[in-house]
Design goal:
Number of helices: 8
CATH architecture of the largest domain: 2-Layer Sandwich
Enzyme class: hydrolase
Number of strands: 15
Order of helices and strands: HHEEHEEEEHEEEEEHEHEHEEH
EC number: 3.1.3.11
Keywords: Hydrolase
CATH superfamily of the largest domain: Fructose-1,6-Bisphosphatase, subunit A, domain 1
Protein name: Class 1 fructose-bisphosphatase
Number of domains: 2
Structural class: alpha+beta
CATH class of the largest domain: Alpha Beta
Strand content: 15-25%
Bound molecules: 1,6-di-O-phosphono-beta-D-fructofuranose, magnesium ion
CATH topology of the largest domain: Fructose-1,6-Bisphosphatase, Chain A, domain 1
Distance between the termini: 54 Å
Length: about 350
């Protein structure tokens, strides 16, 4: 790609604002700040042991998970970068018990930012791709101040969503409701460069992603679906399936965005009171928005994820997303189970 052909994230967003009227100036600036924060996090991630960013932070989050140093560092980078810009009323994060309200000393904006500052935490210390996931909502009403209730909007109300993968390349994937675009970080320039536009997920696939070690805990439909995939060409699906599981949602979803596939993190009996492992507000909703904008589907197995009306900031949901035909296949197994 010649330098002349290169489109930076800033230029892309300005075109989205001016030419297509898809986004406001405020949302454009907010996305630019989040993208800059991800660059900052990428620098810390790349340092690894040299930067003393590996290992645990010695604290736990509201989910009861031991926090990694990078979970805390990434959270702080996103808070500090977004607090003073004037685009936000508040923020919510996997690593914070409740919302962070923009302090009075800063102007307050009309948007709310939710994020999983570091996704794939179990891969941090072993140099496997990890990432950041974010979602943007509009605050309803203009009164100053924001509450947790303001954040509890269904995923279909998102104004924007994206994720960043810190892998062999550093990649930012973004939607503002007008398809999905991919940017690659040019480390020499320090700029995000547009490398793919209007990305489409192939509707059919022969590749599934699930943590197979949980099989004995899965519900019946999931167990039957995977069983039939494993039966291959001689089985009811009539085709062979491959399996992948990176254990970083960002990396598994990015593979699906790139070549198709289906990703499942179902409900399981390990903790029957817990509807799943992944969090609705800052994992399932942003990924669901991106996947749908790329022609795929995102479901709990029985319901469209973006239709769920949230009741809690950190609520969990079962997740099935990716290639349209395959998500529909999984939903048929659930339908059959309901008889
Ligand atoms: O360890 P498991 O059960 O395979 O789960 C892996 C899943 O958990 C996650 O790591 C949860 O996200 P966090 O790392 O942000 O807590 C996902 O990225 C991934 O898909
Ligand atoms: Mg996560
Ligand atoms: Mg996380």
């Amino acid at each position: 790609m010649s330098t002349a052909q290169r489109i930076s994230l800033s230029r892309y967003l300005i075109e989205q604002q001016r030419e297509h009227g898809h986004i406001s100036a405020e949302l454009r600036l907010l996305i630019e700040v989040v993208a800059r924060a991800c660059k900052h996090i990428a620098v810390s991630v790349n340092k690894g042991a040299l930067g003393e960013v590996l290992g645990t932070a010695g604290s736990a989050n509201i989910q009861g998970e031991v926090q990694k140093k990078l979970d805390v560092i990434a959270n702080e980078v996103l808070i500090e970068a977004n607090e003073w810009g004037g685009h936000l009323a508040g923020m919510a994060s996997e690593e914070m018990d409740t919302i962070h309200v923009v302090p009075n000393r800063y102007p307050q904006g009309e948007y709310m930012l939710l994020f999983d500052p570091l996704d794939g935490s179990s891969n941090i210390d072993i140099n496997v791709s990890i990432g950041t996931i974010f979602s943007v909502l509009r605050k309803v009403g203009h009164a100053r101040g924001v509450s947790e209730a303001d954040f509890l909007q269904p995923g279909k109300a998102q104004a924007a969503a994206g994720y960043c993968v810190y892998g062999p390349q550093t990649t930012l994937v973004l939607t503002v409701g007008d398809g999905v675009s991919v940017f690659t970080l040019d480390r020499e320039l320090g700029s995000w460069i547009l490398t793919a536009e209007n990305v489409q997920i192939p509707p059919a696939t022969q590749e599934f992603a699930i943590n197979m070690s949980n099989m004995r805990h899965w519900d019946e439909p999931t167990r039957r679906y995977i069983h039939d995939c494993l039966a291959g060409a001689d089985g009811p699906r009539g085709k062979d399936f491959n399996m992948r599981w990176v254990a970083s949602m960002v990396a598994d979803v990015h593979r699906i965005l790139t070549r198709g596939g289906v990703f499942l993190y179902p409900w399981d009996t390990r903790d029957p009171t817990r509807p799943g492992k992944l969090r609705l507000m800052y994992e399932a909703n942003p990924m669901g928005f991106i996947v749908e904008q790329a022609g795929g589907l995102a479901s709990t197995g029985t319901q469209r994820i973006l239709d769920i009306v949230p009741t809690e900031l950190h609520q969990r949901v079962p997740v099935v997303l990716g290639s349209r035909d395959e998500v529909e296949a999984v939903m048929r197994y659930h339908d059959q189970a309901q008889g």
